[in-house]
Amino acid sequence: MRLFIGLTLPESVQHELTEAWKRTSSPADERPMRSSLWHVTLAFLDEVSEENLQPLIHILEQAVAHPPGGAFHIKTFESFPKKKPSRIVAIAEPDEKTAWGRFVMDVRDMVSLVAPHVDRKPWIPHISITRGLKGKPLELWNQDIPKISWVPTEVALIKSVREPDGSHYTNLHVFPLDV
User: Fold this and answer.
1) What does the DSSP 8-state code read for residue 29?
2) Looking at the domain 2-176, which fold is it?
3) Edge-to-edge, what's the strand order for the sheet holding 154-163?
4) For residue 58, how many other CB atoms are within 10 A of its CB?
5) In CA terms, which of 20, 91, 160, 176 is 20 to 30 Å from 27?
6) In tens digits, what is the pLDDT along the chain, a chain of 179 residues?
7) Rg (Cα) of the chain, in Å, rounded?
8) Which region, left, alpha or beta, applies to residue 130 given φ > 0 means left and ψ of -120 to 50 means alpha?
9) Using an 8 Å Cβ cutoff, are 77 and 88 in contact?
């Protein structure tokens, strides 16, 4: 099954982001993602076998036991990635950027024991708001918004299933963060 690990967003942040998005002059040719799917990805695990699910949950309990503190702040929507952008994201900057970067690397290292295909790209904390139309890159774009802040309170192990109408996510396990 296709899995990833993400910081969940409180409903209040989903609402604030939705309102901020409504006030933007967004580029054309994008399809919005449901706000219930919004999250900050910590690690994309790719395919993980069913028999590795319980060991993965056990490892994640240990891996997320001592997260960095501080809030995340969203001040910008922008096209992403810089080369051939395929979506619009909200950039989520943590107070403790270095500590969160180390935390993400440690989580990725630990889960690689049962999820060997974990993505090792540099971590850029963001929330995907929309996706471009298939096969058509978006134009480079960004827009500042009023600051939205929150302190993460949980991490989720999320299953992603690709469907013709887009990806569908299911939380397989939620880990409360000791904040």
Assistant:
1) S
2) Cyclic Phosphodiesterase; Chain: A, (3.90.1140)
3) 39-47, 2-8, 154-163, 166-176
4) 11
5) 160
6) 999 999 999 999 999 999 999 998 877 677 888 888 899 999 999 999 999 999 999 999 999 999 999 999 999 999 999 888 989 999 999 999 999 999 999 999 999 999 999 999 999 999 999 988 877 888 899 999 999 999 999 999 999 998 877 778 999 999 999 86
7) 16
8) beta
9) yes
